[in-house]
Amino acid sequence: MHWADAFAKSLSGVQRISTGISPSGPIHVGNMREILTGDMIYKAALRRGLEADFIYLCDDMDPLRKVYPFLSSDYEKYVGKPIYRIPSPDGNGSYSEHFLKPFLETLDTINVKVDVIRTSGLYAQGKFADAIRTVIGKKDIVSGILKKVSGRELEKDWSPYQAICSECGSIAKTKMTGFEDPFVLYRCAICQHEGRADIRRDDGKLPWRLEWPAKWKILNVTVEPFGKDHGAAGGSYDTGKAIAQEIFGKTPPAPLLYEWILLKGKGAMHSSTGNVIPAEEFVRFTPPMVLRFLIAKNNPSRHIELDPALGLLNLVDEFEKYLAAYFGTDSVADPDFRDVVWYSSIGREPYSQEVSFRHLVNLIQIYPGGTKLLNALKKSGYSGNTIDSEMKHLIEVARYWLDTYAPESVKFRLMKEDDPVSLDEAGKSILSAFMARMDAIDWTADSIHNTVHDIIKGLGVDPAVGFSAFYKIFIGRDRGPRLGYFLSNLDRSFAARRIAFSLGMAKHVGK
Ligand SMILES: [Zn+2]
């Protein structure tokens, strides 16, 4: 059984699946595991016939923790201030909305329909007021639970509420000094300002370990996926669970822990280190279903290693194999392949990909566009009479991947008919022999391959040397894509003219 269905099997009654990410920097592919895990549980719940909804909490009141590598040093003055109140790096609007916007656009691309709730909005509407009042009233019990469950001491002047200093705007260093309901009295350790914060407004917030269970209570959350850091023994899920039960009288949500997505050779993705691929970037170089596939295929308990270079091509190959299995033209070992494809879907029914991504990557390097590309696509099984919007998108994705992430080994530039080239004697004899036979053979990958193979064998040349003569004249390198396959994608008469030119012969074929 697929992991999302297995999880949903234990659920009963009305469900609210909640996810949360702080837009403190580019929301990245690692964060996508949070939102897509939630989305798949949500869909699994609906599939089981349960009433359910799906929310994403944008933690936009979190303070800026430091000047991240992607920020200018001007941001030093904003450290400690809530990210919804500091300016966007591009000068338009707030910092948090700046990083939220491309993320929401990406969600649309990959068919995630989620209700977005900004934490600042919940505070501004007074939704947290009761929870804040409760934890302040039970401050000692609350701090006792935190100490006991986490095994850590709290600071002597620990505050169950973090006011935003009305003078300097910092939220990081204010301490509660008293409570005159509905006002928290505070002192700011940065500017020494003493003020009061209204708990019915976004004048301040609960610390994370209290805010999380308060959200469960306020929003009646029943399921929540989260990263393994929150799930460690004594971590914020454990303390949240105890606070929810003992302070708020709320059953904690069913947890689903997920492992990290690692960037090959670079480790876990963290906004704070800049070691990330932003979500919107990932869908620029990956077909959108493949991002869903990555999450759908892997059990949340397993880490994922992502390689945007050659690994991406292998990932798309694997995805296409699953699709083919779904349509009954191939098979895969995964018994849940039908569900994996279903969870990978982006709204339309899963489609059969007529032209593989790998093939497309080669074709667009041979034919930059226009009628020639369309004809080559048709020859490869594409059934459209024009390049439709889906194919157009796939071409853009493949081109961006080639320009930005593809390893040199898959990149090539087709030489022109009369680009200069120098060949050794062995190369010349192989190409001459091929030219003599090429008009008579089927212009298919297999027959080209067999012909070249025959010639090389007959001449007693080292195969690697033999093949390299072709690569040299067509792409100016010693190696390239499988030769028969590669040549079959070229126009036969162009291939003939190019070989003739390389041999110093003025041969004109066709046209
Ligand atoms: Zn201050």
What keyword list fits this structure?
alpha/beta, Rossmann fold, 3-stranded parallel sheet, 3-stranded antiparallel sheet, 13 strands, 45% helix, 11% strand
Describe this structure in words.
It is a single chain. The radius of gyration is 30 Å and the shape is elongated. The strands form 5 sheets. Strands 1-2-3 form a 3-stranded parallel beta sheet. Strands 5-6-7 form a 3-stranded antiparallel beta sheet, with no helix packed on it. The chain has 5 domains: 3-119 and 208-262, Rossmann fold (3-Layer(aba) Sandwich); 129-205, no CATH class; 278-344, no CATH class; 357-410; 425-502, Arc Repressor Mutant, subunit A, CATH 1.10.10. It has 511 residues and is an alpha/beta fold. Helix 6 runs antiparallel to helix 9 (236-246) and helix 14 packs across helix 16 (389-404). The protein has 21 helices and 13 strands. Bound molecules: zinc ion (ZN). Residues 165, 167-168, 170, 188, 190-191, 193 line the site of zinc ion.
Compose a concise summary of this entry.
By secondary structure, the chain is α/β, with parallel strands linked by helices. 45% of the residues lie in helices and 11% in strands. It has 5 domains: 3-119 and 208-262, HUPs (Rossmann fold, 3-Layer(aba) Sandwich), CATH 3.40.50.620; 129-205, no CATH class; 278-344, no CATH class; 357-410; 425-502, Orthogonal Bundle (Arc Repressor Mutant, subunit A), CATH 1.10.10.350.
